[in-house]
Amino acid sequence: MPTRLDDLLRSGADDHPALTYKDVTLTYRELRDRVARAAGALRGLEPGARVAIYAEKRLETVVAIFAVAAAGGVVVPINPLFKARQVEYVVDDCGAVLLLTTPERARTLTVPAPTSMIDDLDAGPGGVTAPAARVAAILYTSGSTGRPKGVVLSHGNLLAGARSVAGYLGHTADDVVLAALPLSFDAGLSQLTTAFLAGAHVVLVNYLLPRDVVRLCARHGVTALTCVPPLWTQLATQRWPVEATRSLRYFANTGGRLPATTLARLRETFPQATPFLMYGLTEAFRSTYLDPAEIDRRPGSIGKAIPGAEVLVVRPDGSVCDPGEEGEIVHRGPLVSLGYWNDPARTAARFRPFPPGADEIAVWSGDVAYRDDDGFIYFVGRTDDMIKTSGYRLSPTEVEEAAYATGLVTEAVAVGVPDEDLGEQVALHAVLTAPATTPDELRRAMERDLPRYMVPRRFILAAALPRSGNGKFDRAELRRRAMT
Hints:
Layout: E1 17-21, E2 24-27, H1 28-41, E3 50-54, H2 59-70, E4 74-77, H3 84-94, E5 98-101, H4 103-106, E6 115-117, E7 135-141, E8 149-154, H5 155-169, E9 176-179, H6 186-197, E10 201-204, H7 210-220, E11 224-227, H8 229-235, H9 242-245, E12 250-253, H10 260-269, E13 274-279, E14 288-290, E15 301-305, E16 310-314, E17 327-332, E18 339-340, H11 344-350, E19 351-353, E20 361-371, E21 377-382, E22 387-389, E23 392-394, H12 396-405, E24 409-419, E25 423-432, H13 439-447, E26 458-461, H14 475-482
Parallel strand pairs: 1-10, 3-4, 3-5, 5-6, 9-10, 9-11, 11-12, 12-13, 25-26
Antiparallel strand pairs: 1-2, 7-8, 8-18, 13-14, 14-15, 15-21, 16-17, 17-20, 19-20, 20-21, 22-23, 24-25
Helix pairs in contact: 1-2, 5-6
């Protein structure tokens, strides 16, 4: 029985394919050997020391993730879409003792930690048996106050999630899982853990064009594919030859509501594949899924709790809502993370006993939902100003800070506007420093500091922005204006 993250690699048969990137495939024996050598290169790492990884998906990235765990460290995977400002913040915030990256990425950074090239880990002297700390990983996700917050996950969290999700998805050693999501994303990391638990084969892809996904499905006989709604929307318009679809056993959605038209098109494209609609939050890794047999009977539902978890809809006082009554999603059980890194105030606000006064800590999601008479849950929206776009939750404050950093605006407010493909698109209300500045100039300036998914799709310029009675920007009014 696995007890820590790197134990998952023992599940696969020695000569069975474990991991493919481009034209190279490692068997489970070869992957374990490379992880052992890389862990040896990390000899002397203090138990619990944080090691940040900033690289695209490649063999070395996966090796590094499991080697850090084998060496007793805490892995901090950084979204490869992050720009220098976000990377440097994460490295500093988690107190990383080492940053593993590529030469190209290293040249863009100035970080407060030693930096090594991720390829160098493969030259280690041999295995290491340093004890593993309870903490396995810190995943950074946008926070409502602007800066990303680090969600602390234990080995137990990751293993419980792997067992639960692999169970309801029915993973076996015969599966070929196309890893299309970022490994810094809870669902992306889950693709590795659920596949390796079953001894399955993982194929890595750095998404460039929708046809790349189609091509790899055909080449490798992919059986399992999980994406976020914007990617599914693009994939639904592709031409899928029979060799790309005939092996697909299931397709799954996470990171936001899948438009009904997209779901219908995917079911036509993959008639033999089972659709799984999932909901999760980084603070609890995974939370709910809709039984495929219920999709037509309960359109729009995010389902019920995954095996081993309990997910409820509750009132502010902690009492459980009646059917049809809106309340906050609360998740409890072995997948509830340990809190936010180095942030006791936000941890205390979000991670609270449930029911109130009990010993067990639950995560209060900030998501509003209701349940029907049979206990199926329906997502309504957020209780805060967070924007959900392209499968990511992002903070309006972080977008606004990037706008101010350009020097081109004197006032800026970012809001989310409903979008059929993206979930929400980012709209930025701004007052310009110089009236002659164009929206394209502001966009280009912000692109230097922000990942593509954070860059506003719309710029709404004004002479002044409305304020509420207490002098704050009137976000509700600005959201209304952005929708008209």
